[in-house]
């Protein structure tokens, strides 16, 4: 077995570690420990305090629970929601036709449409959740513009869109095609060749996660931040408990939920080919006080060409969260591929978003917009992004490890996917519900076969 030293999940946050825009307004739970010491034993241990771990925890403590609350602990290596969820674009944008084309080609239209419907269901699900639980997380519903700057790429997308229309699928009614004229006039994207618009949303992801964990903690969750799991033992004790080593001692767990995203293979090395940590970039941009700029209430994906993608939301205060541009550093693989270090910059893209709004949108020419939040020092924050080899998350029982479950590998597209996966993994761990009974898209099921993926989407 590898020593603890050689299995470090990730470097400790460096001194002077810069937080993302979303972590500028911290919750009282940010460094919370429900008890001074780790519990010695727990029924269910969640590892990871991001969206997946928080959703699992929330669902393990339902409002109508009877009797003694379950014994559940959640260990987070750093502060609450300090991984990808606390560093993302805040874009809640179901994918209606983009990866759907790839999934259709690989697995058939039925399986692909199952994923689309699942993603769309998150819109209503999160709206209901936020209303019911009164979670203030700036959840906003709007339209999203998917804009193509490359005419050939647009033509390919349009042809798959036409195919979906021909299938008579109801969800495609929401997707409106935009001609070049529409796209430049309505969306204000300077070099737009055309695109699509459809329903989407955005939110403050950190506040959603803090809200979910606040509820779970109030109902009995033992939350332990700043607690790194260094190893999960290979065998169970005679009582059926997995020994889990942390930097604060050992905790024994009957069931384990791995919600560790990009860092999964440090604890479950069998996922090293399936969940490949990659870095992405995200920034916060603001116009100068009093300077004129065009309000952009919709969200955006701007496609500059094959593999060149930028995602963007506008906050109510007019500021912009924008990230992506992987094409600028794709060839410098050592800087981002199979690299979970979120404490260093990707040099090739460091200054990319300076002047981005001015050069991309009509109406921002005189905005004097600047990148105001630089996540990891320098000009931008570089973020870990768990990219799936086959682009699909791994949900379910870990092959060959009874009592261990995984909900990880949500790619750069977790917001319309993770919440219900967290619910499903909670049901599997707590009530022995089978994967099929959860109603998750069948493509999401983790399996021994998927550990050696047929496709490698990480390098495009
Ligand atoms: C730059 C960027 C932009 C993105 N933009 C969007 C977007 O706009 N829309 C969208 O839908 N998706 C986006 N995503 C993807 C989305 O953020 C993720 O899919 C989602 O947040 C994954 O949630 P998670 O809980 O699985 O992972 P995380 O939030 O990363 O949580 C995993 C947690 O596990 C902890 N952990 C790991 N190992 C250990 C260990 N050994 N011990 C204890 N704790 C451990 C980590 O510290 C981390 O907090 C983006 C991602 C990135 C990186």
From TrEMBL:
GO terms for cellular component: cytoplasm. Residues 43-428 form the FAD dependent oxidoreductase domain. This is FAD dependent oxidoreductase domain-containing protein. PANTHER family: FAD DEPENDENT OXIDOREDUCTASE DOMAIN-CONTAINING PROTEIN-RELATED (PTHR13847:SF279), SARCOSINE DEHYDROGENASE-RELATED (PTHR13847). It comes from the Eukaryota. It comes from Penicillium subrubescens.
């Amino acid at each position: 077995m590898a020593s603890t030293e050689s299995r470090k999940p990730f470097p400790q946050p460096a001194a002077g570690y810069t937080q993302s825009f979303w972590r500028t307004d911290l919750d009282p739970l940010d460094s919370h420990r429900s008890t001074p010491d780790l519990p010695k034993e727990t029924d269910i241990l969640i590892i990871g305090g991001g969206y997946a771990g928080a959703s699992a925890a929330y669902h393990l403590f339902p409002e109508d629970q009877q009797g003694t609350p379950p014994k559940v602990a959640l260990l987070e290596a750093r502060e609450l929601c300090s991984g990808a969820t606390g560093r993302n674009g805040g874009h809640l944008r179901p994918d209606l036709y983009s990866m759907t084309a790839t999934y259709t080609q690989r697995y058939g239209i039925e399986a692909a449409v199952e994923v689309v419907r699942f993603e769309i269901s998150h819109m209503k699900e999160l709206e209901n959740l936020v209303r019911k639980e009164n979670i203030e997380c700036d959840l906003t519903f709007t339209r999203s513009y998917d804009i193509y700057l490359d005419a050939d790429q647009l033509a390919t997308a349009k042809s798959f869109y036409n195919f979906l229309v021909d299938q008579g699928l109801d969800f495609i009614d929401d997707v409106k095609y935009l001609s070049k004229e529409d796209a430049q006039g309505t969306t204000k994207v300077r070099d737009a060749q055309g695109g699509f618009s459809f329903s989407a949303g955005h939110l403050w992801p950190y506040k959603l996660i803090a809200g979910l964990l606040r509820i779970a903690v109030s109902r009995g969750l033992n939350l332990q931040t700043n607690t790194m799991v260094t190893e999960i033992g290979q065998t169970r004790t005679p009582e059926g408990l997995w020994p889990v080593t942390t930097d604060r001692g050992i905790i024994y767990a009957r069931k384990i939920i791995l919600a560790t995203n990009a860092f999964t293979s440090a604890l479950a090395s069998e996922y090293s080919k399936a969940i490949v940590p990659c870095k992405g970039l995200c920034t916060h941009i603001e116009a100068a006080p009093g300077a004129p700029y065009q309000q952009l209430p919709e969200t955006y994906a701007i496609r500059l060409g094959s593999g060149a993608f930028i995602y963007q939301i506008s906050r109510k205060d007019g500021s912009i969260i924008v990230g992506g541009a992987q094409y600028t550093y794709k060839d410098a693989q050592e800087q981002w591929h199979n690299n979970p270090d979120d404490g260093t910059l990707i040099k090739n893209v460091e200054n990319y978003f300076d002047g981005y709004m001015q050069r991309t949108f009509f109406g921002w020419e005189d905005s004097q917009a600047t990148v105001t939040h630089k996540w990891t020092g320098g000009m931008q924050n570089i973020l870990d992004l768990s990219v799936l080899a086959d682009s699909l998350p791994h949900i379910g029982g870990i092959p060959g490890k009874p009592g261990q479950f995984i909900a990880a590998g949500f790619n750069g597209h977790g917001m319309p996917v993770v919440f219900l996966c967290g619910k499903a993994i909670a049901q599997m761990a707590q009530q022995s519900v089978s994967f099929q009974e959860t109603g998750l898209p069948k493509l999401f099921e983790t399996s021994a076969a998927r550990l050696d993926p047929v496709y490698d989407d990480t390098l495009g």
